[in-house]
Amino acid sequence: MFNSVEFVEVRSVREAISFVEAGKADYAVVPLENSVNGPVHETLDVLSETMLHINMCIEMRIRLVVAGRRDSKRVYGHIHALAAAERWLEENMPEVERVAVSSTSIAAEMAAREDSLCVCSEKAAKANGLEIVADNVGEPNNYTRFVALSWRDRAHEGDRTALVAVLPDIPGSLYRFLEPFAREGVNLTMIYSRPARSMPWKYLFYVEIEGSRLEERVQKALVEARKKSI
């Protein structure tokens, strides 16, 4: 899928998706979920607003380093990277201030610019000329799922389906929404809630299920579940 392509670095999930929406790129590859820290909230929020399709899911093991000036009193990192390295930082740099930024690559840029520290990938550290202070500082089973989004609808190739729903604020609404999937034998692989920005105190539910939406059992479940949403 990504043979012979040009990769373009951007500064945020929203910017990556906006590039595809504007026709400046064919795909946006963004982080969806981390095995240690859960969903990437920025991605879930943007997925509820875009009409792009998820075409592929890629799982990668995340190996983090601490890089920069050893005696600095500040360390930059993405919120998930800082959380993954929390144990190492508590044991080795308990007095260092932790500052969350939008990505590990930006953390490396900030560390290079300010002569401070960062939690990032080895590649980002080397690209910014940073000394690696400590290697493999994250949790041992730290994986991130990335998704590739585009305007292409490839449902015929998929083995999972993702959907976003808003449910009525009444008892049992989530149960009634999910019940059709159980009845049709459709397995749920992920469910998270996020505040609906346009509707105060309402929540969006991000749901992943096994199976393509072209399968009959999935279609039946989706039709019934849609009746239970707003």
Looking at the overall shape, the CATH architecture of the domain at 63-139 is 3-Layer(aba) Sandwich
Number of strands: 12
What is the helical fraction, as a range of percent? 25-40%
In terms of quaternary structure, the protein is single chain
- The H-level CATH homologous superfamily of the domain at 63-139, spelled out, is Periplasmic binding protein-like II
Largest sheet: 5 strands, mixed
Question: Number of helical runs?
Answer: 8
| End-to-end C-alpha gap | 36 Å
- Average pLDDT level: 94
Strand order across the largest sheet: 6-5-7-4-8
Low-confidence stretches: none
Structural class: alpha+beta
- Here the CATH topology of the domain at 63-139 equals D-Maltodextrin-Binding Protein, domain 2
CA-based shape = elongated
CATH class of the domain at 63-139: Alpha Beta
| Element pattern in H and E | HEEHEEEHHEHEHEEEHEEH
What's the alpha carbon Rg, rounded to whole Å?
20 Å
The amount of beta strand, in percent, is: 25-35%
Summarize the structure.
With 230 residues, the chain is of the alpha+beta class. It is 30% helix and 31% strand.
Topology:
Layout: H1 13-21, E1 28-34, E2 38-39, H2 41-47, E3 53-61, E4 65-68, E5 74-78, H3 79-84, H4 86-92, E6 97-101, H5 104-114, E7 117-120, H6 122-127, E8 132-135, E9 143-150, E10 160-166, H7 173-183, E11 188-195, E12 203-210, H8 216-227
Parallel strand pairs: 5-6, 5-7
Antiparallel strand pairs: 1-2, 1-9, 3-9, 4-7, 4-8, 10-12, 11-12
Helix pairs in contact: 7-8
